[in-house]
Write a structure and sequence with these properties.
The chain is built from 7 helices and 2 strands; from the N terminus they run αααααββαα. The chain is mostly helical and 189 residues long. The termini are far apart.
């Protein structure tokens, strides 16, 4: 009988030890899951920090781009991780009005007048900017996906140049009219 009592006392202890082992194993699994979650969160935080630095670079850029040197500098600031931010910023600017008007908000008059898409007719080519040019085309395609973006850009640059030339002609014509009027007034006196 004593032996049976011993065995009965041992069984609850064995069950308690087994329960403790199960609890320890469960806690170890929970710790591993927490460890994985912390590692994932750390990775996300690093990405967010990196993206915020990249976004800051994009936010530093003021448009319109005034010179080829600024365009070259922008080329250096565009990276794979901030490319999308540049595209969205350009898309926002280009979607404000018609492309022939909004392109003037991205590129200055000087850049527009001294450049064309391919770099023909004694002008510099926007295609030579291997990083900026595809981003500009992508932004254009997001604004109007129905027409090829390069075709839209060519047309917008031509219209912008024509508008600039008309404005110069009108100003010159007005200046001549003012001078003629002054001459007539002087001769009458």
């Amino acid at each position: 009988m004593e032996k049976i009592m011993k065995d009965n006392g041992a069984v609850p202890q064995m069950d308690a030890i087994e329960d403790l082992r199960n609890e320890v194993a469960q806690l170890q699994r929970s710790v591993e899951q927490l460890k994985d979650a912390v590692a994932a969160q750390t990775a996300y935080i690093k990405i967010l920090i990196k993206n915020s630095v990249d976004a800051t670079k994009v936010d530093e850029w003021e448009f319109p781009i005034q010179s080829p040197m600024e365009l070259l500098k922008m080329e250096g600031d565009i990276k794979t991780r901030n490319r999308g931010i540049f595209v969205q910023k350009l898309r926002k600017i280009l979607s404000e009005t018609s492309l022939s008007k909004s392109i003037k908000k991205v590129l200055s008059r000087d850049i527009i007048s001294t450049n064309n898409v391919d770099g023909v007719s004694g002008k510099d080519g926007l295609k030579t900017f291997k990083t900026f040019f595809p981003i500009l085309l992508e932004a254009i395609s997001l604004v109007n996906p129905a027409v090829l973006p390069e075709r839209q850009l060519r047309q917008a640059l031509a219209l912008a140049k024509n508008a600039e030339n008309k404005a110069k002609y009108k100003k010159k014509k007005n200046n001549i009219s003012v001078i003629e009027e002054e001459i007539v007034n002087e001769s009458e006196n």
